[in-house]
User: Fold these one by one.
Assistant:
Number 1:
Amino acid sequence: MPKVKANNITLNYEQQGSGEPLILIPFLSADNACYAFQVAEYAKHFTCFSVDLRGTGESDKPEGDYSTELFADDVAEFMQAIGIPKAHVSGLSLGAATGMWLAARYPDKVKSLSLHSGWTKTDPFIKTVVEGWQVMAKALGSVSEMVILGIFPWCFTPELYAARPEYIQSLADFARSRPAQPLASFLQHSNAVIAHDVEAQLGKITAPTQITFGRHDQVTSTRFADRMTSNLRGSELVIFEGSSHAPIYEQVDEFNQKTLAFLQRHAG
């Protein structure tokens, strides 16, 4: 996989497909492969750049404080380094938080913005949930095992666990197969989640925006929908009725269809 120097670190990424550039920003604990079920469809219409954020995958993992603003700066520098003046930008959860900062700080770089399971400012509930994940990660000494035991139940509905246990197991196997995130890097990333606050910057975002939530998501629930749609001009809202925090895995076909339709409307 190619690597590039950006913002004084080396970032790893995967490039697939052809067409206008589409930057895919991963979620907490994940590397560039997390959108595998989407890239297969998106790459038929767009050149997909799936990035390992600092502290994940095969990108550098420097010490120090991380923030969603810093991740956005990294992505902006990444785009400059590989010669992309403007791109469609998509992310889920931490990826959405980063995407909001990117579109606010660098509006000329973002052609369209796709925000899935996002939130504008961490509230006491999110802080409590993420601090619980931090405790579990330290106790287990393994980020991937914490993800499977601690984060998965927040990402998927009880109905999915009951109906498709073998699918949950395949996702667990997939998580274990990816480059292991060091505990220190997970703590840096999760602290960035806890500190996230882009609320005052939303008015700077000019790109057409799609906002999506899973109906049964509790972490970044539809409680954030109004403050996002009311502050993002020309945004559109989609609710995935059968999903929790990760419709990218729970309602793959519907998610791909509705998000790709948005991207194609704003291409060209």
Note: The chain has one domain: 3-121+197-265.
Number 2:
Amino acid sequence: MTVKIVTDSTADLPPQIAQQLGITVVPVYVCFGEKVYRDGVDISQDEFYQKLIESPTHPTTSQPSPSDFANVYSKLSMETDEIVSIQVTSKLSGTYNSALQGRELARTRCRIEVVDSLVVSMGLGLVAMAAARLAKAGEGLPGVVEETRQAIACIRLLGVFDTLKYLLRSGRLGKAKALLGSMLNVKPLITMRDGELFPTGQVRTRSKGIERLFELVKNALNIQEVAIVHSTTPDEAGSLRERIGSIFDKKWIHIARLGPALGVHGGPGTLILALREKGSSIGQDASEGKPSRKRFSLPPLHIPKLGFSRL
């Protein structure tokens, strides 16, 4: 039987890709006051960002429950006897622990491996996609898990925030610093290391921030796949895809929408680039890889990590 792949909605996977690759997505919860929505089920991204802008109450998110995962595992066990469940980084969310607990609750003899991706958004999405392709090719659970872990080590992620006010609302940035940033029109850049989000600099204009995203691709080492994630700027994401397409096969460049999990902190105008460098054979024939390029290395930082609230 084919290994089934499970992830959560923090992966920001486009629905058509999840369906095509047979990936089951467990939704996180979005809360506006006492009103609770399932991400991608009871509330769309358009509805979420409209509420984010208009609602007097800043939203919060919460992780899927163990029973949510148990129900998914039990249902999938009727189609397979092996499941790989790949979750958002455990350093920012309790979703991984919920998946582990869900495995214990599931009334099934199905073999279930739960993997901590150590990434977010389409960084996680790219890992899940790669694992799903390998599973569809007939690889068993041990092989899918081994290659999935290799793919995790090959993910690079960089994002630019258009405003600091949503970080301020969520309590993740001092008010004085946020107000100063707004006055100077500073656009913070965020990267990911060892499962946690860190500021990696700032730019004065949005165009310079987008240039930094392009440079990440331009200088990366033998890219396998790229994802551009936007919150509210599809035309901008499309333009960046066209530009990247001049140096990398468009077939492997995906555009996705930033969901509530990070949207509550980033807000409108957030743009993230995730890529998977060549380090495993998952999901793409070696002959389709690009020639090796000089690796892009972010400078070492000695600044505090971003303590985003746990899902």
Note: Residues 4-152 form a domain with the Rossmann fold fold (CATH 3.40.50.10170).
Number 3:
Amino acid sequence: MSRQSIDRFSLRSAFARVADQAPRPLQPRRAVVTATLDIRVFELLIARLCHELSGPIAAINNGVELLADEPIPAGVGEGPDFVDDAIALVGDSARRAANRLQFYRFAYGFGQSGPIVGVAPSELATRFFEATRIACDYGESIRALPLDWQRLACNLLLTGAEALSRGGNLVLAVGPAGLHLEAIGEFAALSPETSAALLLATPVAALTSRTVQAYFTGFLVETLTCRLVRTGEPGRVRLSAIALAG
């Protein structure tokens, strides 16, 4: 068979012939995606992700509870204490994972028009920070705020936690002009990169996994028609979402 015959039946030539015979598709118009659509898609994706993961984690919790109720057969593992410790470790990890998923689902996946089902944001925050080196004070005044403001409060907590690399306290409060967070602890500070992202001064293409939380918090501040003010002193960082007049 000649070289010309081989080329005739090559994949490339076959695809070329099909392409020549196929009708030319109409050129689609460039889609214009608004910021509102972007955030709605983001919220729904996060809500779905958390929902999909919560089922397996709940199953782990149920399995651990069943194991805890069953007597341990003789000769299993290194002894009853070893098995009990293993069950307790798995159960504690599953509970913490479930608490984090519930918190993230509200902080990232809650839509302003949707109701919250289940645990209140204040309880979600308490569970999120339990057994960590950070104590969370989610005051009564915060609990009375609309849910979109409490969503901002939860994201402020996550941003403030990044300032407490050695642990400390997060205190949320409502003032006459807006919402305030104090992060108090040894060497409490936000990195320049995090601070820039918080003020939305970082291009989206330059965001990293360490700065995206601050950027999202700044975005929520803007959607609530607020201005973010960052102040601080050694051992203390203050973040305030000040409502703009009108």
Note: The radius of gyration is 26 Å.
Number 4:
Amino acid sequence: MSRYAREWSVAGALAAGLVFLALFAPSFFQPQPLLSLAARTAPVLVVTCAMSLVLIGRQIDISAGSLFSVCSVVAGLLAARHCPVVVIVPATLLVGAVMGALNGVLVAGLGLPAIVVTLATMVTWREGLRWEREGLWVDLPERFQWFGLPQAAGQGGLILVALGLLFLLAMGLRHSAGGRFVYAVGSDAEAARLAGIPPRRVGFLLFVMAGALTGLAALLNTVQSPQVDPNCGNGLEMKAIAAAVVGGVAISGGRGSLWGALAGLLLLACVGPALTHLHAQPYWEKATQGAVILMAVVADGWRARSSGRGRGRA
């Protein structure tokens, strides 16, 4: 239990918040609004998984939002040209993987700081997309929405895809050699290298995987609307980083779990709708989310200092 204390504390806070809403705002639990909220959160969950993997590997990717926008527009343009879904899905994932590979080459291959590289690619993708589209949205054919399913079935399908992916990644991270490599590199890259683990290769593959997962998230978002907004990914990277950090993923690398990131995402995602049902002013949403993130960071720092004092006494 102590190993997952942070994850359990976030889950407990989420459960307490839901109990509070059940008592004072029971309208929050109406099935259709909850289903819509979960469907809107599904793409963010996929990006949060990708970001968590990168953070655990002691890297960071702040270009995720711009990459998400590019992949969304690519998927939209292919759909507008009546390409079949079996072509759109792998093509969008490939675009995301290639863009992630560029980050990986610059960071893992050339040893450049991840925050500088991904800041540069974030601006490059965003401004390039703005120049190409000039703010024009992409109109989608009706058959592409929800992958041709009824809305309720499509929403349920998106949620299942996101949760299924979360489960597979979480199991792989905890129980596969590749997952142990990620934790080892995130904890101490030099020690991992001496143990025979190639840190650069692991870092490169993390960026490629993050790009492909962001491409998948863009698809899950694109099918929910009749049009694609070229700015749909603005600020998404901050949401993913915030959810991961609140859920116990360490910015310094080597610690965290995807289940904790899920709990952090749900906690932050419920803030806005909860405040609406409690008849609070909209501007309290950002303030409340900021307070949650701040408490998580303070708790992380307190835990690190306590651990340090414990080792010192030992």
Note: The beta strands are 138-139, 227-228.
